[in-house]
Design goal:
alpha/beta; Glycerol-3-phosphate (1)-acyltransferase; 2 domains; eight-stranded mixed sheet; 16 helices; 8 strands; 11% strand
Length: 425
């Protein structure tokens, strides 16, 4: 359920062509998923063995239970099942957007729909998904969970710039209610992940495995080993794009140059106009990912066998471009750590996970983790309704900024849960 909310609002040229799938909640399956399926899935996929919610945060959620609420969470990894389980435990019905292709998988699609998911067509202007979200809020009785970062980036101490979808849909729902006595709240929340066991042996194992795979001799120091491995991984990508680093270049400079080369290649491959270099990097990556999704959706809509054969090679090319763009997105959050190496075990292992994905094509979480959910002060959108009527863009941007800063503040406030990087012995 990664970037579904952003796709609803993306200004693209392709309208929704797939049938929209609304939620179809099954009370029996909801109870089974909350007690068994979600906890098992979280343990197996994310090594998440416990979820903590303070009594004060729990009381706030219960106080808002009868209101119209959009939960707006950071999105490093597995927040959707975490919030589903919390909602089921507290008796709060939650609905989530999920990418349309998930529903084409027989078991997964059947299951997620019956626990509250509804579809959004990725890379398309999905008016039906937007309307479903507004209708859920205006009808009441269900909360909606959104992830305004748009993509899960697997860097658990980072909050990426928020997209405006949550603010826009919330204000649209409030405007439709057209009654000052009917509040719609955006609820900022942050999930802080942290390891619950001594990680030194696992850190040594992870680094040694990467060094063997890359034919490197180990050196002393956690951070020195990590940066040498990162250097080798970036070098491999530079070779693929025929880039030669200069002697005075540091890792960050090389990564910036590599990114521009990948972005230029993606623009040429997708046949679109290049974005202004003045635009933020994340916005440029998001735009190209959306264009790639549009291109792939157009291929899926080809009707004749001849059209499908002709488009197959093109689809493979676009998938390759999308894979490289996802690599860029994964490394987007690593920038600062190439300048100032990670100071906590959690940040260190997040970078290791990025490197493993680049070297092995897969990654893992190495040990048991816990999650602390931080809940902030609800944003009452009624305070912005008059501004929205007269200056909608200003209101949406202001609410998005307020929401992003609230989530970032919650995540910063929970930094004490992280484990300082130990001395290597």
């Amino acid at each position: 359920m990664n970037d579904a909310h952003s796709q609803v609002l993306s200004s693209t040229r392709l309208e929704t062509s797939s049938r929209h799938i609304p939620p179809n909640r099954d009370p029996l399956l909801l109870a089974l998923a909350a007690r068994i399926i979600c906890p098992l899935w979280l343990r197996q996929r994310g090594q998440v063995h416990s979820v903590h919610l303070s009594p004060e945060a729990e009381q706030l959620l219960l106080t808002l239970r009868q209101d119209r609420v959009m939960v707006c969470s950071n999105h490093p990894s597995y927040e959707a099942p975490i919030w589903f389980a919390v909602g089921a435990r507290l008796g709060i019905p939650l609905c989530f957007m999920a990418n349309r292709e998930f529903f084409d998988r027989p078991v997964e699609g059947w299951l997620i729909r019956r626990v509250g998911a509804y579809s959004v067509a990725r890379g398309q202007r999905d008016r039906e998904a937007a309307e479903s979200t507004i209708r859920l809020l205006t009808n009441g009785g269900n909360w909606v969970v959104m992830f305004p970062e748009g993509e899960n980036h697997h860097m658990h101490s980072v909050v990426a710039p928020f997209l405006p979808g949550a603010a826009r849909l919330g204000l649209q729902a409030l405007a439709r209610l057209d009654a000052a006595s009917e509040p719609v709240y955006l609820l900022p929340v942050a999930a802080r992940y942290y390891y619950t066991t001594d990680m030194r042996a696992r850190m040594r194992t992870a680094l040694s495995g990467l060094e063997r795979e890359l034919d490197m001799a180990p050196v002393a120091g956690w951070q020195a080993r990590l940066l040498r491995i990162a250097d080798r991984v970036i070098s491999a990508s530079e070779s693929h794009y025929r880039l030669t680093p200069l002697a005075e270049d540091n890792l960050r400079t090389r990564l910036v140059r590599l990114r521009e080369q990948i972005l230029t290649h993606a623009v040429v491959c997708l046949g679109i106009q290049p974005a202004s270099n003045g635009k933020p990097l994340l916005a440029r990556i998001r735009r190209l990912l959306t264009e790639a999704d549009i291109s792939l959706a157009e291929r899926r809509e080809s009707r004749s066998a001849w059209q499908r054969r002709v488009s197959l090679q093109r689809s493979r090319q676009v998938k390759g471009v999308r894979s490289h763009l996802k690599w860029l997105l994964a490394w987007y959050a690593v920038d600062d750590m190439l300048e100032v190496p990670p100071q906590s075990v959690e940040d260190f292992m997040d970078v290791v996970e990025r490197l493993e994905r680049g070297v092995y094509g897969r990654s893992r979480y190495w040990a048991r983790r816990a999650v602390e959910l931080q809940v902030g002060r609800p944003i009452d959108l009624r305070l912005w309704l008059d501004t929205y009527h007269t200056a909608p863009v200003h209101a949406i941007d202001a609410v998005t900024w307020e929401l992003e800063n609230a989530v970032r503040g919650l995540l910063t406030a929970s930094a004490h849960l992280m484990t300082p990087l130990p001395e290597q012995r």
